Amino acid sequence: MSRNHLTIVPYTNIMPQLFLLDPPPAPEWLPFSTCRPRSETRAGAWLIRERWEAIAGDGTTAIFAHEHLHAFVEDGVPPVQAPHEVTGPALIGLTSFAPTGVAPELGDQPATLINEDETIGWWVPAGHTWRHEETPTGEAIEVAGIPLNGAFDLVTALEYFLVADVMDFTSEGGDALPDGCVVIGDPSDVVILGASVEPGVTFDVREGAVVIEQHSYVKGGTRFEGPVYIGPGTEILGGSIRWSSFGPRCKVRGEISNSTFLGYANKAHDGFLGHSVVGRWVNLGADTVTSNLKNTYGNVRLDAAGTRIETERQMLGSLFGDHAKTAIGTLMPTGAIVSVGANVFDGTRAPKYVPPFAWGDDGKVMHKEGFLETASRVMPRRKVDVTDAVRAALEAIYDRALNT
């Protein structure tokens, strides 16, 4: 995935280093706080990291995160480490904030980056030093974007960013639309970039563009209602897709609305998914259905391992952690959390909170070796090798999840 479609404004001849600072793990960020840095979650078409990288330009990137994520490894992800002293030029960004990607004007003096009076990062010019344990001072500079108060706000970010994200691609033009496809709206808002699209696909782009990246495939009979972003290598196998973004190498079918897939996930059968976040290596069984609206039409509350969280969202489906799986015909309640590595089966209706590595709904836990063996079968199917480093990362996630 390229960052060329975010606005990059250079402000110095020396590109700064970028350090992305994860706040401490919190219930609001379940199920992802146990299995990946916040920077590696998707806010609109782009990862939070990619949005900060658009501000920093082409400098190097590192991630400051909690100890259990120091072994985290994923293709294209910078090193994850403990916070340490930083010498400028450097930009430090909080991953609880998603910037638009437009760089602010920065000078030769230290500055605190803010958004609506809240600190969201720091600018450290050459000759200056940032220390994590200290509270930096300096001029306050406003940065455009939105705060992320929890994993549920990745749905909010999708609603906030996606129209502009996909519109950025329309200047490229893209490939010719195959005969037999239908466009409702401006045909220039359908952007196909080296993807295979069968005849019989409908593109409704009256509310936003549809972008299909290279090596992706769209089966005839699919209906898109923009804005929609399809990442590289993703297969759309039919159904109705609206206001959603998909990372690389997903397989998708059915009715999907206002949802984001981090990548390498399967929803290859029918079933409704709405206002949800799907982590990497998730597999949703056929006819898995999410509820995204309470019968009372009130705001959705989460049960995050016993902590009650007010999302202030009326529409919210399910949050699926990495490597989670559901059985055929699973019904997900409004505002459900399915933790990392959990397997949901033995009951038609899932609970509001599914613990890490749950095996069914009777309190059993998947053994570590069983989890690693399953991952070693699943990941190579998407041409990702389970190397010693990947295995160590998975072990660290398992150990952390079951010892907190």
Comma- or semicolon-separated keywords:
mainly beta; 16-stranded parallel beta sheet; seven-stranded mixed beta sheet
Describe this structure in words.
The chain has about 400 residues and is mainly β. Helices cover about 10% and strands about 30% of the residues. The protein is built from four helices and 36 strands. A hairpin with a 2-residue loop joins strand 29 and strand 30 (about 305-310). The longest helix has 15 residues, at about 155-165. About 50% of the residues are buried.
User: What is the CA-atom radius of gyration, in angstroms?
Assistant: 21 Å
Structural class: mainly beta
Count of DSSP strands: 36
Q: So how many helices?
A: 4
Low-pLDDT stretches are: 7-13
- Approximately how much beta-strand content do the residues carry? 25-35%
Mean pLDDT across residues: 93
| Gross geometry | globular
Largest sheet: 16 strands, parallel
Helix content: 10-25%
Set out the fold topology.
Blueprint: E1 17-21, E2 42-43, E3 46-47, H1 48-56, E4 61-64, E5 80-81, E6 86-87, E7 90-94, E8 97-99, E9 111-115, E10 118-124, E11 129-130, E12 139-142, E13 145-147, H2 153-167, E14 182-184, E15 190-192, E16 196-197, E17 202-204, E18 210-212, E19 217-218, E20 223-230, E21 235-246, E22 251-257, E23 260-261, E24 266-267, E25 272-274, E26 277-278, E27 283-284, E28 289-290, E29 301-304, E30 307-310, E31 318-320, E32 325-326, E33 331-332, E34 336-338, E35 343-344, E36 353-354, H3 368-378, H4 388-401
